[in-house]
Design brief:
mainly beta, ten-stranded antiparallel beta sheet, elongated
Length: about 230
């Protein structure tokens, strides 16, 4: 089962990646789906399709890509006499079993069977830009100073927490996003700014997952269902 989210987000991600065939340039890439359960992985120039909880395993060389449209590429090959078609669409896709967003919508046709699911590294949806926080626990933030968040490729997190700059580490697992306790500078600001900063840092350490809306808004969710909402700068 999958849920696709918004063409605006897809186009924004396409601009960052520079190619709808971004997965082909990655050393390792993976897609998953459910009902029935399946996975498609790429490594060392080969692709592997597994279904029926590993009972069926098909391995094949990565075939040439054919551009379908500005956001979709297609890969065609055969295995054991059966045709295999993989379509990758650069559009945010939400795994409804885990709630994890991924950057690509994947459709596979193998013989008479059809599979749908989500592919790519979820971190790619967060990286490559600066996010500006627009609300904390549903309430708008102060106009100035800004609160910003930058997700680095190496797992580092940094930005402006209102009055001070902060640094932390983040980790994405199969089901969520966690952010470690960070460090910040020690400047003092006016009381409203300091209260906002305290709330932001408190929420940040409790983040357990993230979502991306159709308009591209990023929401970081805590286990207490409190949120940090941000948009691209």
């Amino acid at each position: 089962m999958l849920k696709s989210v918004g063409w605006q987000q897809a186009l924004a991600f396409f601009a960052v990646c520079g190619s709808t065939a971004a997965f082909a340039s990655q050393a390792d890439w993976r897609a998953i789906g459910h009902e029935p359960s399946w996975s498609l992985s790429r490594s060392d120039g080969k692709m592997t399709l597994e279904t029926d909880f590993g009972a069926i395993r098909v391995e094949f060389a990565v075939p040439p890509a054919t551009k379908v449209d500005d956001r979709t590429v297609r890969y065609l090959t055969t295995s054991g006499g059966d045709s295999l078609e993989v379509n990758l669409k650069t559009e945010v896709c939400v795994d409804t079993m885990t709630g994890m967003p991924r950057p690509e919508q994947v459709t596979i046709t193998f013989g008479t069977k059809r599979f749908t699911g989500c592919g790519g590294d979820p971190a790619r949806l967060l990286q490559g830009q600066e996010w500006t926080v627009i609300s904390l626990s549903g309430k708008p933030v102060l106009g100035e100073p800004r609160i910003t968040i930058v997700f680095a490729e190496e797992g580092g997190l940094s930005g402006l927490s209102s009055c001070n700059r902060f640094n932390a580490e983040y980790n994405i697992t199969g089901e969520g996003l966690s952010i470690g306790k960070g460090m910040s500078s020690m400047m003092a600001c006016e009381e409203p700014v300091m209260k906002q900063e305290q709330l932001f840092l408190e929420l940040l350490e409790r983040v357990s997952r993230f979502s991306i809306a159709a308009d591209g808004t990023l929401t970081l969710h805590t286990n207490q269902d409190r949120t940090i909402a941000a948009r691209r700068q």
